[in-house]
Specification:
The chain is mostly helical. It contains 4 helices and 2 strands. The chain has a two-stranded antiparallel ribbon. It is elongated and about 60 Å long.
């Protein structure tokens, strides 16, 4: 019996999977980028959010080409830096006024979060191109 391969159906399945996982990656990375170091006087553990991001990235990497996977690697590197910096801040200081990061450590926290934000934007641009989504993209900025 000859098995006929339907490349169109195979591509559709991959497209469907990517269209589910790409937004999940964006959500987890954005969540980590916005995660506070402190909630009141308590440390906020970034590990669960980072772990979720890593899990989704590993799932989608299977379906992606070198360009997207390079973007995912840069995203994970930036995400790990945010988590590491948060844990360093928590280990070496106490919450500042209003749960803010201590002024001495704030510049590094801001730098790694900006890098993650840039990596998120680069990933979204690459993912949208991969899915052939046309038009410009701007991240949502909730009123606050």
């Amino acid at each position: 019996m000859d098995l006929v391969r339907d490349d169109g159906a195979d591509r559709y399945v991959v497209l469907q999977r990517k269209s589910q996982l790409f937004p999940a990656i964006y959500y987890a990375a954005h969540r980590l980028c916005q995660l506070p170091v402190w909630r009141g006087r308590d440390a906020v553990d970034p590990s669960p959010v980072l772990s979720c991001l890593e899990d989704v990235v590993m799932q989608v990497a299977f379906f992606c080409d070198e360009e997207i996977n390079a973007s995912l690697e840069r995203l994970l590197t930036a995400a790990r830096a945010v988590a590491d910096t948060a844990q360093t801040v928590q280990a070496s200081s106490r919450p500042g006024f209003g749960g803010n990061v201590d002024e001495r450590l704030r510049p590094e926290d801001e730098v790694v979060r900006r890098r993650l934000d840039h990596a998120i934007s680069a990933f979204v641009e690459a993912a949208r191109a991969d899915l052939r989504i046309e038009g410009s993209w701007l991240p949502p900025h909730p009123a606050g």
